[in-house]
Amino acid sequence: MNNIATAALMLNLTVVGIYAQPGPANITISGSAAASTISLQPDSPTSEYQLAGVNGRLGAFTFRVVSTSIPSAQQSSTCAGANKLYLSTVAGAGVIRSQNGGLLKVNLTGGSDCIDFSVGAALFTKKFQITGGTDRFKDASGTVTLTMTVVPVMADSSNNPVFFAVTGTVSGIPIDQGPQDAQP
Description:
Blueprint (H helix, E strand, L loop, with lengths): L1 H19 L2 E13 L10 E10 L3 E13 L12 E15 L4 E14 L4 E13 L9 E13 L5 E15 L9
Antiparallel strand pairs: 1-2, 1-8, 2-3, 3-4, 4-5, 5-6, 6-7, 7-8
């Protein structure tokens, strides 16, 4: 009987330990993008992304990002061709807001944009360093990667795309399964 009780206790502690493990989350996101009035670099347009996602461990969250990209001095083997434009992301920041109001602040450290005019879509990758946070993200550290597919939704009178739909993933969001994060 004692062995059964010990085994049950060990199993219970193992399950609790697994459930309580902090770790980064990989989450599907969607939202929109458009030009921003914020100027991050002279003579370079800034884009603003309004993104949202839901993850069972994190709950509902939003991710607002501003960034600017310029034509890259380096060529990319993954974004080559007559109908493609490769850009380097040079400045930006973001804020992730969890459903409980916790904020995770991130600064851009690099990234790239590959615009494929032949298919009317682009693949954007943005890499961020965590710079601070509140509540559940108070002691967070590490990096967050945002990978997005961006497609035009609306164009201006000159037929230039001005509003975009965004789908993708964000990875590396630190998850803390403390009591404040309990899901209903």
